[in-house]
Amino acid sequence: MRILVPQLLTAALLLAVFDGACAAPQAAAKTPAASTGLTASSESFSREELDQMMAPVALYPDSLLAQVLMASTYPGDVADAVEWSKAHKDAKGEAAVNQVANETWDPSVQSLVAFPQLLAVLGQDPKWVQRMGDAFLAQPDAVMESVQRLRRQADAAGNLKSNEQQKVSKQSAPPSGTTATTTTVPAGTQTIVIEPANPEVVYVPSYNPSVVYGSWAYPSYPPYYYPPPAYYYPGAALFSFGVGVAVGGALWGNCNWWGGDVDIDVNRYNEFNRNTNRERNVNRDQISRDGKWQHNAANRDGVPYRDSKSREQFGRQLDGKGQRDAYRGRDGARTAERDNARQAMQNRGFESPATSNREARDRAGQASRDFNQQPRARQQAANQNLSNARAQQGARDRASTAQRGQGNNAFAGARNPGQSRADAGRGHSSFSSSQRPSSSRGGGRQMSRPSRPPSRGGGRRR
């Protein structure tokens, strides 16, 4: 018994651990999924995060807010539009939209260039734009609820009112069972709607979310705030409006508060796209048959989706890209010819054309940096060439000196002993001769001069 008891206790402990490990996955499986349908709660945005990111745009007019929500699902295109707007600071309204008709951006992004003051705000934080788009794709109902929650806060604080620029109203949800209502919105729920006072002119409001919403409920998640440039809002107050923009057909979406999505005005959308593609199939490209907006994954430009549900859903849409290309008249053979021509240019040393606006912009930036570095590179090359020339000249000088001094080299006869002894003997004899007295130096004939006869008197002979 003393031996079996410890063994039984060990077995019981192992069994308990095993049962607990098995029970954990079962408990996780029984946990209800998020209302947005995501596979993991960590992939969804919390209420605090949604209010934090929606605070800067929640008080925009409904039609403008709808365009922002749609456009934010294409963050790469928004970044391109921001750069374009910076380069065309005074372009706005329908005239600006016409200037970007040939850009490959999604139509929802093209419409935003009508509002340079809005792009100035969106351009301050591309990560915020991407998060807002990810939230709208994965949790459209939650995003709409967040906007309404924020509007009620601003209304309670006395900072959301009708004026010359906008019309603020409260509407009740339609009866349940209608096509415009979802089961998540109880009948009779008050919804705050913001519309332009003049349907043809839209004012983009500017406000500080930390003030306009009153006391903020989430200290750990303070609202985002991106102040617009003073260029568009001189002397901005608590709630300011810049210059009104005549939008024309730039706004063709609207918020469906009771359906949790965005509705599309098909006629306005077709009018908006008249300059880009007259044969565009609206129902397949941008909206469904019931007039609801649909995200076009082909315009995402490779930006990854945040949650697994979006990756799975819109990844399948990308699989059907060939069918869309065929419908739009894109010939596969012609595409192959372009690829072959591009490859031939690369083989010959030519750079292939950019495949997107972003790639073209990156190449231009790199070319500018290379151009700025050229003077330094040229100076470095000149210094290197000068150093090489000096080294070569030094080598030639040393070779010439060695060649001239070869006959007078003291070691030239080192390999001929007889010649060396003879030279040494002549040197010794010359040295000895120089050391003897002058009387004993003989080596040549002595010079003699005739003596003069002695004188015989002092007078001259006659």
TrEMBL record:
UniProt feature, compositional bias: Polar residues: 160-170, 400-409
Extent of the signal sequence: 1-23
Native organism: Lysobacter stagni
Official protein name in the record: DUF3300 domain-containing protein
Region span, Disordered: 157-184, 280-462
Phylogenetic lineage: Bacteria, Pseudomonadati, Pseudomonadota, Gammaproteobacteria, Lysobacterales
InterPro entries: DUF3300
Segments of skewed composition (Low complexity): 171-184, 372-393, 427-450
Superkingdom to which the source organism belongs: Bacteria
Basic and acidic residues: compositionally biased ranges: 280-293, 303-341
Keywords: Signal
Recorded coiled-coil stretches: none
